[in-house]
Design a protein that fits this description.
Elements (H helix, E strand, L loop, with lengths): L1 E7 L7 H14 L4 E7 L11 H4 L3 E2 L5 E2 L2 H9 L8 E3 H14 L9 H17 L12 E7 L5 H14 L4 E8 L12 H12 L6 E6 L5 H10 L7 E5 L7 H7 L2 H8 L10 H15 L3 E8 L9 H13 L3 E8 L5 H6 L1 H13 L2 E4 L8 H13 L4 E4 L1 H13 L7 E2 L9 E5 L13 E9 L5 H5 L5 E8 L1 E3 L4 H6 L2 E6 L6 E6 L5 E4 L14 H10 L3 H6 L7
Parallel strand pairs: 1-6, 1-7, 2-5, 2-6, 7-8, 8-9, 10-11, 10-12, 12-13, 13-21, 14-15
Antiparallel strand pairs: 3-4, 15-18, 16-17, 16-19, 19-20, 20-21
Helix pairs in contact: 1-3, 1-9, 4-5, 5-6, 12-19, 15-16
Length: 560
């Protein structure tokens, strides 16, 4: 097993996840089996109870793990399926060690950060690195891991300082991602932050084998030579990644700077110097992305619109689908509260700007979420999409609110609501699930990959999924459509075309006589891949560009 540790310096959010994913993509293109582990220093057991404004979206894995969004990048780039133990947190490690101590595993010894916590980290990494993540179920050959150098992450840094000797030099490589800022006042690219970052890392006992320098513009050769000299590495060990038009371009930039040859020598890998067809596909995809001329605009109506990372997987799923049909995506974020009547009274400019965005969009998407704030604005957007025949996709809460909107405006149940927002409603069209435990918030939802069975052949989504009788997608929800009321909706044209294996949980809705009005209880964005777009999102883009009917007539084949 070969281990590649990716550390970050200068600032957080520098792109460690994308760099690690891109390196994994290159190694996978050379025929190697790659897995990935993300290390987060927070004391939370997992990311499940975070606000999206804390660390971005919560990514859900097949096994129900609620993890950091970087694992989403790993899955999309490498086309693998990870597990919750691929996300290590301080909380998980300490809980693991404390449980062992309570069990008496340490035989009365004083339990300390060194060696007990650091040993637990190393043991966890070695065990998880062996778990197959590809469809062929073979053990991986390369394990990519990411951590940072903050004070709270010190036990992890110390664990890897020890681990480099345990794994041996030919099996362990450290890549340090740093920033090369360019102040507007001078226009000069500054290397001092990188020098200080590498010096600090060396002081902790880790010496970088590769220094990946992030910058706004391409870095000059003189800067590369300066970093090489002051950071005690060869010039070929300094890699530049400037801001690019799409993340698809990052693996290509790395490959152009000789990273395959370096890894082959440094880790003694049994590979050719040239990448395979997989990287050629990435090159073609990146070039195609940059040449797109036609634009499709989608309005994303949500409550976490101030930070794009809150909907990272949704954005990627839309981007994958737009690319598949040769359109450039114009994603317009609309804060759902700005569509509400209360905003018109408080700030009429914001209100009219939000509605202007919504009205000019080619399609409307209402993603998942929790809590009552902004729900009335989402209901307004859904009502507009339904009545104006605008293509619409509702995901999780978006589907539940589509049912609420239909009940209020088509069934005339004016007080219809979800018990999440109004526990005493006379028409509870959305109710909490049997598994829901109101006393405990972490891990009490319906999580992970579950089967959805189509109950009719006359379904747009079934055709988009390749006429399969069932699909398996990832879930993350506490509430669901009330199955006792579904017959009332079906009589009026809102069909529940997919349900769980027992037939009790409503999973997919479709509205008759509408270009594309679809809701799904699951989160299809988590399984979208750059070369395998998610069918519900693809359907939205096709409908928004007016090409859905032609696509279905061709037997769900994309035009060249």
């Amino acid at each position: 097993m070969k281990y590649i540790l990716v550390t970050g310096g200068v600032i957080s959010g520098i792109g460690k996840g994308i760099i690690a994913s891109s390196i994994g993509t290159i190694l996978k293109s050379c025929g190697l089996r790659v897995t990935a582990i993300k290390i987060d220093p927070y004391i939370n057991i997992d990311a499940g109870t975070f606000s999206p404004y804390e660390h971005g979206e919560v990514f859900v894995l097949n096994d129900g793990g609620e993890v950091d969004l970087d694992l989403g990048n790993y899955e999309r780039f490498l086309d693998i399926n990870l597990y919750k133990d691929n996300n290590i947190t301080t909380g998980k490690i300490y809980q693991h060690v404390i449980n062992k101590e309570r069990h008496g595993d340490y035989l009365g010894k004083t339990v300390q950060v060194v060696p007990h916590i650091t040993d637990a980290v190393q043991e966890w990494v070695m065990n998880q690195a062996k778990v197959p993540v590809d469809d062929d179920r073979q053990e991986p050959q390369i394990c990519l891991g990411g951590t940072i150098g903050d004070i709270e992450g010190m036990p992890f840094v110390e664990a890897f300082r020890q681990f480099q000797f345990k794994a041996k030099r030919e099996n362990f490589c450290n890549i340090h991602v740093s920033l090369v800022p360019q102040p507007n006042a001078t226009g000069e690219q500054k290397t001092k932050p990188t020098q200080n970052s590498v010096r600090a890392l060396r002081g902790l006992g880790l010496s970088p084998d590769l220094i990946v320098c992030r910058s706004a513009k391409p870095i000059e050769m003189a800067v590369k030579e300066k970093i090489s000299m002051f950071c005690h590495v060869e010039p070929e060990q300094v890699i530049f990644i400037h801001d690019v038009s799409s993340t698809y371009r990052v693996p290509i930039l790395l490959e152009e700077q000789g990273i395959i040859k370096y890894f082959k020598q440094r880790l003694n890998l049994p590979i050719d110097d040239q990448p395979s067809d997989l990287l050629m596909k990435w090159k073609k995809m990146a070039c195609r992305y940059e040449r797109l001329l036609k634009v499709c605009s989608i309005a994303l109506v949500g409550k976490y619109t101030k930070l794009s990372d809150c909907y990272a997987s949704v954005f990627k799923a839309l981007e994958h689908s737009a690319l598949a049909i040769n359109y450039k995506l114009d994603l317009m974020y609309i804060d759902s509260t700005e569509l509400e009547r209360s905003t018109e009274a408080e700030n009429s400019v914001k209100y009219h700007q939000a509605w202007h965005k919504l009205c000019k969009a080619d399609g409307i998407l209402v993603p998942g979420g929790f809590g009552i704030r902004g729900t009335e604005g989402k209901l307004q957007a859904i009502s507009w999409a339904r009545s104006k025949n605008k293509p619409f996709l509702g995901v999780c809460l978006g589907m539940q609110l589509a049912v609420v909107e239909f009940a209020r405006n088509c069934l005339n149940w004016k007080d219809a609501n979800s018990t999440e927002f109004d526990p005493d409603t006379k028409n509870p069209v959305v109710i909490d699930m049997p598994e829901h435990n109101p006393g405990d918030m972490g891990g009490t939802m319906r999580l992970g990959k579950r089967r959805t069975v189509f109950k009719t052949e006359n379904s747009v989504l079934r055709k988009l999924y390749g006429d399969e009788t069932f699909v398996e997608e990832r879930h993350r929800h506490r509430y669901e459509v009330n199955p006792e009321l579904t017959h009332c909706f079906e009589e009026k044209g809102l069909k529940f075309v997919g349900h769980d294996t027992e037939g009790n949980r409503m999973e997919i809705i479709e509205l008759e006589n509408h270009p594309y009005f679809v809701g799904v209880q699951f989160h299809p964005e988590f399984s979208s891949r750059p070369m395998k777009p998610s069918p519900p999102y693809l359907g939205l883009l096709l409908a928004a560009t007016g090409t859905l009917s032609a696509y279905l007539q061709r037997g769900c084949k994309l035009s060249p």
